[in-house]
Write a structure and sequence with these properties.
The protein is an alpha/beta fold. Helix content is 33%, strand content 19%. The chain has 2 domains: 7-55 and 385-436, Urease, subunit C, domain 1 (Roll), CATH 2.30.40.10; 57-378, Alpha-Beta Barrel (TIM Barrel).
Amino acid sequence: MAESAQRLWAPRAWMQGRWHESVLLEVTEDGRWGTIKPDTPRAPDMAALPGAVLPGLVNAHSHAFQRAFVGLAERRDSEHDDFWSWRDRMYGVALSITPERLRALAAHLYAELLRGGYTQVCEFHYLQHAPDGSRYADRLSMSRALVQAAQDTGIGLTLLPVLYERAGFDAAGLRDDQRRFATTVEDVLALRDGIRALRVPNVGAGVAVHSLRAAKASSILQLAQRCAGDAAPIHIHVAEQTAEVDDCVAASGLRPVEWLARHVALDARWQLVHATHTVPAEVDAVAASGAGVVLCPSTEANLGDGLPDLPRWLNGATPLSIGSDSHVTRDWREELRLLEYGQRLTQLRRNVAAAPDNGLPSTAVRLFERMLTGGAAAAGLGAWGLRAGARADLLVIDASDPALAERGADSLLDTLVFSSPTRPFVGVMVAGRWRVGG
């Protein structure tokens, strides 16, 4: 898999929702896909790939600094442990992260994400200031660390500076251990524009709101108004925990997703992260708006958040994507597996995500296809996947993986997702360059 090769040949490649055989994949000089042609005999100038090929997925929700916390909260020393007690301990880690350490942590993480099949990551970035809460002379210090980590590893990056103003619905400001997170609408827009001004290849920027509890309604509406006409994504944590839902109802009379649908002009730029605790009317309102939902199965399981209404999200038109969030898992195959298994355990039936009546009997195929298209929207990308004009990203499956032995095209993707553990991808390309293998 020579890096200089511009004409690749795959024995099998995933395009338009199914496997195609003997596929020519041409990479243009600007790192995009040119001609992609199945049923093409291999010519001498084509570099043969050693396994079947998939498009890369977008990791639509990441807090890179939390990689430092993985494994350090898996014990309970008091009667009760939940998201909120985990969060208090996580803040202690956040207070210790310098720009230099963030770059190292993020580079380590991004290399793992590449091996796990992600070629783009959306960084929900709220760790902004010095440990004592003072502002760095260069407001982009922490953002630069993440951009540099993306350059170190070659992963694509959508950086989302976060609006973070208060500790809760009834709080006037932040807690002391949240002092590094403080931002205003002006701060968020300045960070976004500063990141864009760096003009780093495969790095873009949108904005984010931490949550309804952490930002004033007036500020959320102001940020939305200031982003009018900007096509970049707008992400927000919403309805992750039942306590958040209860607090939102007490403060506003509305559930979190209900509040957003009623007060914000949701559209395809908006990405609702988690949206775990919803009622049918909220799901339907989001589907009608064109906004997307980012599911984070491994983190939601690790934190005891709960399970989303996956069947209703799937049956509507809502774009869906996945994120590894706190990074207890860093492979999209594990995320899809856990997403489906959670539904099976609660609904007492199998293949919940499959839709045979719609011609989609394969659970893995339906989930993968939804996350493929939804992830591109969450990252603010246009054409995505193995198609002409899209960025030349791909994953090469390890053909020698014993888990995949004697599996044909009709069951390969299902086996890849549901036969764990699986080996890392042996080749990962981003924008026409090999970042794993090659």
